[in-house]
Amino acid sequence: MKENLRQSMAWLHTWSGLLTCWVLLVIFAGGTASYYQEEVTLWMEPELHRVAAGKASSVDAAGMAVKALQERAADAPRWFINLPTARNGAVRIAWTAPPPPEGAPRKRQRLKSALIDPVSGAALAEPRATRGGEFLYRLHFDLHYMSPLWARWIVGFCAMFMLVSIISGVITHRRIFKDFFTFRPNKGQRSWLDAHNATAVLALPFHLMITYTGLVTLMFMYMPGAAQVAYKGDREKFTEEVFPSAGKPAKTPGEAAVLAPLRPMLEQAEAHWGGGHAGQIMVNHPNHANASVSITRAGGRDLSYKQPAMQFEGVTGARLASAGEQLAPPAATHGVMYGLHVARFAEPLLRALFFISGLAGYAMVATGAILWAVKSRQTQAKALKAGARIGFGTRLVEALNIGAIAGLPIAMACYFWANRLLPVGMDKRPENEIAVFFAAWGAAALLAQIKPDRAMWRLQLAAGALLFGAIPLLNVLTTSSHLGVTLVDGPSAVAWFDITVLALGLLLAYGALRLGRGGVKKVKTAAVNAALEVAS
User: Fold this and answer.
1) Could you tell me if 141 and 155 are in contact, meaning their C-beta atoms sit under 8 angstroms apart?
2) Per-residue buried b or exposed e for 435-460, using 16+ beta carbons within 10 Å of the residue's own CB
3) Biggest CA-to-CA distance, the chain
4) Average pLDDT, stretch 229-234?
């Protein structure tokens, strides 16, 4: 019975992984890059590199932001302030346009925004238009070029298959932990199996956590029935309890009045949070009698994604309400699960471990897909000797493997190259950067369909290595905040980005060289065998 169970699990592990592996590669690639979403965005906005190096307290930055908003949008119905963090040094202010006069047609209120220096309060030039790291973040669950709703259902389906594949893989491999310490190079199928086992066990807790919490983040979309039954269809009450906010904005602005200074409110909120810094500020009806100020704590203090908030009267500065400090157990659990998935709490070392674990997940899925192709080709070896052609399914999987495993790094590198090479003033520049990403990936995938062999693997890995490895040089030629400069002032996000892409380029180059050596060895072996046959 045990053997039958293991055999059943092996079949389930193989097919649950193979049928979704190429989408999972996209999910892992985008999700892994998302751990440094803000750093990627900063690198793609070189105009802000110097601002990121500045330091200012949240209280001082808020004062500068209010001063700038008073100058630009004193009559706006709502202000928004994103305060600087250790990973993002600029202050983003935004405001809604004033409502139209009575009798005029009402239009949808749109946000206007600006960047200011948190130290001097001076206006900053808007950086080049780019989606930056946000594109990679949303790619791993919205997929792009399709309805987000359908994309999230597809991603959820693949994540469920991933979870099934992980559990069935643990059951299948009785010696999985022993195999982790075993790697036999140059052994064909055995080597790929060893690599698959090693990358799977190396970050097994991470793989289980990231897959399960990924499903939890969209649980209300996948299973809406429980919330509908529990709250009897009252979606507003459900949202209020699960996603609490500190009070509600006043319905009418009231008479004109002077807005109280934000400093005492911020100091009170941060003292109440035990030193936790404010992250966002929203002011409803500024400069009016019914003004209110809502302050939300910055993330990073704990595991939960949900952060507490406090609301104050805008004119008197009196505290009105607080929310998010004593969440109900289900809401607290959801916040922790969500927080574990996005890892906003992670310090630099832990964030690096998450990133490496994500790369291990990419390698785990990739080696599993390659292992299936190697095993399939070996089972067809006798038929190939008899003159038959390789099966369509095997050839298709091999081509898709090359296009996804080696093609995705090419696409990501081209995305960064497009950020530097496309004209800064180009219309729809962010969309064009993304178009370059998919064009490069599509070209790699189509090229792989022509001849999915070792030479194609070597070509695409070498192309990815060249594109990634040359990004630091590209940065030197196009900006003044390149690796050499930033290392003199101390390692920065820009320097670490260049170092990381250079390391990825070297990793891809190593893979291309290994394939080249394997090809040379194969040719030498064939030549020796031919010589022995002639001699005999």
Assistant:
1) yes
2) ebbeebbeebbebbeeebeeebbbbb
3) 105
4) 80
